[in-house]
Amino acid sequence: MARRPRDKSGSVRIIDVATAAGVAPMTVSRVLNAPDRVAAATAARVHEAIERLGYVPNLMAGGLSSRRSRMVAAVVPGIGGHFFGVAVQRFTEFLGEAGYQVLLALTGPAGVNEDAVLRSVLGRRPDGVLLTGSDHSPVARRLLRDAAVPVVEMWDTSETPMDTLVSIDHAGLGAAVADFFFASGHSRFAAAGSRFPRATIRRQGFARRVLERGGTLLVDHTLNGSNSITAGRDVLREMAPLLGDRTAFFSCHDSVAFGAVMEARVLGIGVPHRLAICGFGDTEVSRFSDAPFTSVSVDGKAMGESAAEALLDRMNGGPPRHIPLPFEIIPRAST
Amino acid sequence: MARRPRDKSGSVRIIDVATAAGVAPMTVSRVLNAPDRVAAATAARVHEAIERLGYVPNLMAGGLSSRRSRMVAAVVPGIGGHFFGVAVQRFTEFLGEAGYQVLLALTGPAGVNEDAVLRSVLGRRPDGVLLTGSDHSPVARRLLRDAAVPVVEMWDTSETPMDTLVSIDHAGLGAAVADFFFASGHSRFAAAGSRFPRATIRRQGFARRVLERGGTLLVDHTLNGSNSITAGRDVLREMAPLLGDRTAFFSCHDSVAFGAVMEARVLGIGVPHRLAICGFGDTEVSRFSDAPFTSVSVDGKAMGESAAEALLDRMNGGPPRHIPLPFEIIPRAST
DNA sequence: TTGTAGGCGTTATCAG
DNA sequence: CTGATAACGCCTACAA
Description:
Number of strands of chain A: 12
Oligomer: homodimer
Strand content of chain A: 15-25%
Order of helices and strands of chain A: HHHHEHEHEHEEHEHEHEHEHEHEE
Strand order of the largest sheet of chain A: 2-1-3-4-5-11
């Protein structure tokens, strides 16, 4: 391997490549960023030098100079839950093909750290930002406005989006579940969910439609803690005395629905005859459990891809948009 | 809101803050990076100016100058699968608390894009790199060596680690499963798994121990495609004629194990009496399926945390280490 | 405790 | 098509 110039710093610089190829640094830069503007023979010499010296361009310097970082930030609650994991993965893949890297920024379950996370993220001068939900503090909004960076808010609907929106209509989803139950002849309903924003909206959409269509809402329960199988069991035990001959139950999360299904069996409540159950998420437990149950499916991969596409478009000067995402009720043995 | 100086660029610079606070830029820098070396009164004035102007330090400029990016790269196959999703999440959280941001780099299922991904990632001059597995091309090794950056390889064991290793002993894991079966009195065995590196190693560890202890290995099957429920069904149908009174089957992935469990039921093969089954991953299907089955559990969160801790230590000048990660066989109804 | 000078490695811009 | 020059915004090193 050739000797590697490392004059003062520790790594090969553009000037080392330029010297080795007998050209000016600017020409090396062009070979990398605008090959069309360089003669083929020159480009070949430069490439040879790059290869031989193992030159890896310093993107901090390039970004500082060009004011383009070629990086976008993905600000999400977490990626351990399958849904956002898949979404961020697809988002990253899609933008990677367009030459952008992704800075991962985690805000925690309820987005509690969003402001702090956003501040440090913006220090990186991302060319675009992906946000989760549409509930952002005034501080966050000011930071983003001052940064003048394209923003995509995903997952949530909003009547006052900051920029571009890639959203699931959670209220409409709840209403669709109610309609689904009505179509099966139900008239008595129950709902439960966490106090997280989206779950609440789904539940409200469900409740509203139930009342609109003249149904009876026996139970509308807000969980104290977060979604869990145990919470589902507890809810069902509480509800049991109120259940009549036939009730339809919408649980705003599959874990809770699964707990309810399990507990119904323990209590001898027939599913779906006496109690019909619909969950949310179409997760593995809804499909592979002991007793598969109906659930609403939302496509994380599609969300990530739409978000990437929309952000790319914005970064290329396109206008803000609003992209609705579909959902689907997957009927199984519980309804 | 105060008028925001934006002389030539579009955003507030350190000199704007300095001017507003009546100090030199260097003093503002110190307030942010070495508060101890600034008088309290001065710091207060500077903070006021920062707040008022909405100053967000440009980390590209800072990194270029200081030669520290305060960023680490996480190079993983993907984050859609629960395991790496959880690992990367914990990794990011842990390093976030230490002031590092995480650049997410995806190499695809078999790590096929690793070289290209690594090259662009290193352009960002990360202070540390997290890699998945220990099978890296000469190109990758050269890139990392030239970059002189601390590296942690996770997930896989290796006899020639580049630097620090946070690893599960997949071969030992396979052997432990064999021992587990022997302890239940088994003497006839079968194994199946994908051709992915780790799955193969687990299977080899299993097979070797079976033979060492004098067992019979009826089947040692390499799946053509990737892990799936369907593949598990197919494998079991193929194996069925070879099964005697009592056989113990190690499937190197839970999806495959689940398929086998389902197909055994269809074929009327009694589990666990005639066929004992152990999967890998301790995923939801192994716990919540129709027929829960024994599986080997590995802790993604622990892996992410150990990797973060080890990388942090390396970045602070600590020596390379080798951190083994535990696994656990979770017995269920299938054995 | 604070300030000054200079450079980090690249690219925009304009000239040839 | 190629090159010279001057930023980009911050921090290291040294000086006061």
